[in-house]
Protein 1
Amino acid sequence: MMLEGRKSYFGTGSDCLNIIDHRNGERRLAVLSDVEEGIRVCDALSNVDFVMSMFLPSDRHPNIYDRYQMEAMLTNTTKPVVFTPPDMAGCRDTVEMAEIVAGGEEALRLNPFICAYINFSSYVRHNPESLQRMLYMAGKGLPFIYVSSIALRGVMTPVTVAGHLALRNASQLAGLLLAQLKREGAPVIAFRTGGGGFNMKTMTSMYSSPDARGFGGDLAHYYGLPTFGTSGCSDSKLPDEQAAMEGSLTLLIDALEGSNLVHDLGYLESGRTGSLEMLVMCDEALGWIKRFMEPVMVDDETLAMDTIVEANGDFIATQHTVRHYREDWTPSISDRGNYESWNAGGGKNFRECARDKVAEILGSHRSPELPPDLRRRLSQITRRAEELVTASTRSDD
């Protein structure tokens, strides 16, 4: 993925606590198998360009869950990976995993297929642990996003959009400067936040609000920096009509703005819950948006002047129509038939079609497997971290 100009690439988020199980509609804590299934679905969806882990696996120790996330991503997809290291030890281990797959440290630096998403604690105070991770990635010459873990207007920044942008921009530039002091040319991706609002009535973030969208991307383009956006997400609690509306609108805004790396596809409930159904719905919207963003080819063949003369107003039987009618965008789950055919096929709504698509992918899709020796080496790193946690727990006891 060439993060330059106004090229846009889309992927999931990383840290939802909950999942809406597509099999029964239940909202529950996510587990490691949800991470694995989510990555397999991402691998199969043609409009999802990169992956993040989507869920926090509640069935793994909180100090080392990120190793399991990374192992799941590296073994269930060939798409680029954005990972979120919670601490320095995890950052080192996950980069080591990627170096194993890439064929070594230098091979990964020359052709990086990973990017770290590093959160610092406050826009006015960068905590040491996050700075360490950022400087480690910069020293390696590997790409990273460096931003506060939360950007709530009125809580973490001024409530006004202008004040919010000014403080966030200053904080971003401070991180950029430190990275370049560590290693000149270190590849930094600027964060282009979503709405960034805070609902003072309910004390929840407004994940999909329109208020501050777009301006952060303009600043990043002004500096010539690639951007990391937030779209394909919703404040809705279900993958319903509100989710489809907010997910599609936010994706369209990022595409029009030219945000380069856009994450959080499939996020619901202001980032607390993920849904594979919502992910498929976003993939469908992205298919529409990507076609909409394509330029129109204008030449003798597409202008079809000879055909206009010869057809005499009836184009359906011309060879020109036969040559080109299949070029229109074809949806994956949206229905374009008449009422009778839709009803005869079960009369399914959009969410039901998305649910069927998830089940179809999980029942049939497998990404190319890593060689057994590489899988073994990845598992060794995960087991090593597990043993350290176990030993530390015993010493505390």
Protein 2
Amino acid sequence: MKRDIYILIVLLAVCSFSLNGQKDTLKVKTDTLPESFIVLQKVNRGGEVLPEMEIKEITIMGNRGNVSRAQMRRYDRLTYNVRRVYPYAMIVRMKLEEVNLQLASMTNEEERKKFLREFEKEVFREYEDDMRNLTLTQGKILIKLIDRETRNTSYDLIKTYRGGITAAFWQGIARIFGTNLKERYDPYGEDAPIERIIYEIENGFY
């Protein structure tokens, strides 16, 4: 039963078309300038016009200091679990973009519903087996990472796609197994270790 929760969450997340909180937008190139081309902006600073440019954010990470073997084992286990489910969170974001792009070209409501039904079947066939292999801990992390990537909780996604009654039902089931579909991702608080691991993944540490 608990595995079915994660199947439904990912399924509904990728099929949801309420993208009000979506983090990414499509990038469209409008010229042929090389990607490394930099345009300096003129900015008035105290009456003097100076050239200025934005630079990428730099993340500085300190070492973990003295940690016990037990703490290292917990961190290594967390690393394993995050690496296990992070690709699925990225798939959710990618699929949301795909669905949104397709729906944008559809004006007929029946056509939209038919597309979503077929899309749902396709996603279920593709990811059902993988979702059934997740552990409870991995499922909890995935719920948080879905919020990180879409800025929508799993509860909100289910509510949008299936309605409030269904969302409340699955929230109740999730709570029985110690999971909260309304849980938000907190990169500066309790989820800071997960954020660090994702940074390491994205920067090739693994």
Protein 3
Amino acid sequence: MKMSLLDLSWFLLESEAIPVHGGFLYVFSPPAGAKPNFADRIFTAMSKRPVGAPFNLRPKFAINAMPQWEKVEVALSNHVFRERLPSPGTQRQLFAAAAKAVNPPLPLSAPLWRFHWFDGLEGGRFAFLITVHHSQWDGIGMFRLMGETLPDSPKSRTIRAPWEGVSTWQRRDVPKEAGPGALRKTTNLLTEAVRAVVDVSKAFTSHGTGLVAGSARRPMPFGAPEVRAERRGSSERTYGMSRLPLARVKALAKATESSVNDVMTTVIDSAYRAYLAERGLAADKPLVALVPVALKVPGAGNQISGFVAKLGEPSSPPLARLAEIKKSMATGKGDIGRMSATGAKLFAMINMGVAAGPDLLRIGERMPVTANLLISNPYGIPKPLYLNGGRLDYFMPLVGPSLGVRVAVGFMSYADETYVALISTRSAVPGIDRLARLVERSFRELERASRVPAAERRASRVRKKPTRRSRATATRAHA
């Protein structure tokens, strides 16, 4: 199976300083009246399920051939592991165990995934962690896998293992009927390549024209403010999470005539800027974010583009900051919207390559950075999901900061909540639990500034579980 150029690029970027594998942690509660062996029976049933694409594909590189995905037989014992947490099985213990499990790199000699099952959590809860490689998965792909593995009905008793595969890869794995001839294929590829180069050239030409005219809305490469306390820093990673009621997020977006994406980007910008100020690292110009964008095109593997966006001015109040970010995000999305899918992917590869280049060349500590943050909003799931009747309480990405960026933030909606996952290194954000609390504070400040009706704010404060669920949580891991 052919490997796309964008998928291949992740192998070219990968190094000890730039890990391009990541994990996704899913935490479940058993249904009322479940037997003590409820989780054990699910794991046993999963262990009997077959392996499908891309979980049965490994990379194949050869000097005289294009990179391929090669189908191989998979021994689950080499990929599936089980661990029981010691009593009392707290969330902090789970995060620590998951962080340790996700860190080792995935060997290229085998399919690029691992699965860890965790028993022994408080209240009979259980969890699993899927570790995968970015060459095969983007955020949308992981959400698609979640939706195809976990039904939205608590009555469903179908148990499907994640490694059974995902529809986009399975369709790609089916041999295709004879298509256009070699000459026509070559002509189509050349036409597509030329259009992609033209699209990207137009975007960069527009950027250059803006610079000359003094009206550039796009930041320059290596033009982000320096906010690293230590240039070399530590490889110890930290993970944190904040939760916000989805109803309040939507009400705020409506009140400000903004998108949820713009609102949450503004909240993250404000929170991180406040965190830097508390550490004596306040920036005197706007922070810069690397922003992935999902492409609405069919296919497996990476279907993403991305751009670099300037965030709010240092002294901007909340509503002015939101207006500045809306303009910046609209500029980046406008660039991508005018491109073909191939051009948009090429645009992303250039942006990623420039951002990651110094780290890849082992000179990152001596070079300024292109972006301070990576801010991703992959998808949302409107209804609760279940596994044999057990409810998915929450999920959290455990990825490593990469592409020259020391702080990565992913926000997504699930059921009635918005989750903000914070990923960094200990040297960049030693107090990630503090940053998580500042996200919640910044959201409240933007709410007050936008004058969202108090009744809407109070009505959405009701929680189905104790407020302990909403507290920021964090853990650390050694790379």
